[in-house]
Amino acid sequence: MAQLRQEVDPGGVGLDAKALDRLDGYLAHLVDAGRLPGFLVSVARGGRIAHLTTYGLRDVAAGLPVGTDTVWRIYSMTKPVTAVAVLMLVEEGRLSLDDPLERHLPVFAGPRVYESGSGDDVRTRPAAGPIRIRHLLTHTAGLTFAFYHSHPVDALYRAAGLESSVPAGADLTRTMEVYASLPLQFDPGTQWNYSVASNVLGRVVEVASGQPLDTFFAERIFRPLGMTDAGFCVNDEQAGRLAELYGQTDDGGIEPITGLPLHGRPRFLSGSGGLVASAHDVHRFMELLRRRGELDGTRLLSPGTVDLMTSNHLPGNADLRSFGSRPAHDEPGNDGVGFGLGVSVVIDPERTQAPSGPGTFGWSGVATTTFWVDPGRDLTLQFMTQVRPKRSLRIFPELKRLVHGAVVD
Fold first, then answer.
1. CB 141 within 8 Å of CB 197
2. Residue 239: Cβ within 10 Å count
3. H helical segments located in 92-185
4. Cα–Cα distance, 286 to 295 (Å, whole number)
């Protein structure tokens, strides 16, 4: 078990300690007000951790504090890990970004696109072209999530039993069959819609590598990087460090809720949101990307591939807000933010509603976890808690404001 530790005083890397104290105060207030159970926040510059704070509880009922060794459900922060796995296989020549998906998963041959109607009266047409690997990495494949309620295809996902993105009891192979049986929302490559695409990529990794997704992650990413707690399940020792999961109540408080079953290998290995990790693991992964594919002598990706991953790939160099009013798009924080291969990318800092340097990239999880890397400031941040909100907690913009306010050189 490896733990995160502060390595340098803030002033030694151009950060204002008093400003970072204000960051801690803001977050501690959320805990004291009952809006969060507890948190971990770390800020690093040049790869050295200059600020590390834990506060509050990982399990309120048991009175267990958040520690630097706490294990967290990182949900959609799994997606960048899946993207790295895909890009490793691209570099090895086992995949190409322009490969038609059907080359690796034949069940996706001949995709069809929604035209009109609903329920049993849906009308479709052949897609203008195939789904390609790059479309999955950029969420431009035309797939969706069942929990949206803004398009008739969302309802078809719910009717197919995909409320949690996977049919009850199904594995990756069976789930791909269900996804492929449903129409796309739009022609691949023409729009952006945050979706189940990373689950599809997880199956692509399995087929292209000849290994189960959890084995590939463990042998090719986690062990080489020293990510000692990362995985799709927890052992007995890790279970004692696992944070309780909470949901937001109607009055803005929190209450325990059921999360993914983590005791024992899951039947469905979700490349979209199935991982747990410690803060040490997340820091190691951020460092891999900040250092453009290499960490402590271990290179997983070339610098050029990481540069490609962290560049905007949306049609017309658009931002996320440009693609309609669906829930995944119409967030104020999406102004000026594009999307790369598995991560968001700041393309116009002046339009973002929180301070961000150009090229800042990262991603967040539904339990209010996040990480980002700001290459221009050589700055990384992670924030960990475990609250699934009913509505936006608006923590992340304030995090960015307070952290960037601490940069003094």
1. yes
2. 12
3. 133-137, 152-159, 172-180
4. 10
CA angle 237, 242, 246 (to 5 degrees): 160
Contact 335, 319 (CB under 8 A): yes
Phi/psi at 93 (nearest 5 deg)?
A: 80, 10
- pLDDT digits over 127-183, tens only? 999 999 999 999 999 999 999 999 999 999 999 999 999 999 999 999 999 999 999
Residue 152 CA: distances (Å) to CA of 4, 116, 120, 143, 146: 46, 8, 11, 12, 10
> Which amino acid appears at position 398 of this protein?
E
CA distance 142 to 153: 10
> How many Å is the Cα radius of gyration of the chain?
20
Q: How many other C-beta atoms are found inside a 10 Å radius of the C-beta of residue 25? A: 11
pLDDT in tens, 78-115: 999 999 999 999 999 999 999 999 999 999 999 999 99
Coil vs helix vs strand at 307: helix
Number of helical (H) and strand (E) elements in the chain, helices listed first: 12, 17
**Is the separation of the CB atoms in 379 and 359 below 8 Å?**
no
- For residue 197, give both structure tokens: 């695409």
Q: Which residues contact 370 (CB under 8 A, 6 or more apart)?
A: 77, 362, 363, 364, 381, 382, 383, 396, 399
Is the whole model's pTM more than 0.85, yes or no? yes
Question: Which amino acid does the sequence have at 72?
Answer: W
Do 300 and 284 meet the contact criterion of CB atoms below 8 Å apart? no
Residue in 5, 133, 162 with CA at minimum distance from that of residue 69: 5
How do 387-388 and 246-248 pair as beta strands? parallel
* Angle at CA of residue 104, ends 144 and 260, nearest 5°: 45
> For residues 70 and 282, is the Cβ–Cβ distance under 8 A?
no
Q: What are 53's two structure tokens?
A: 């704070």
Which among 404, 319, 407 has a CA at the least distance from the CA of 356? 404
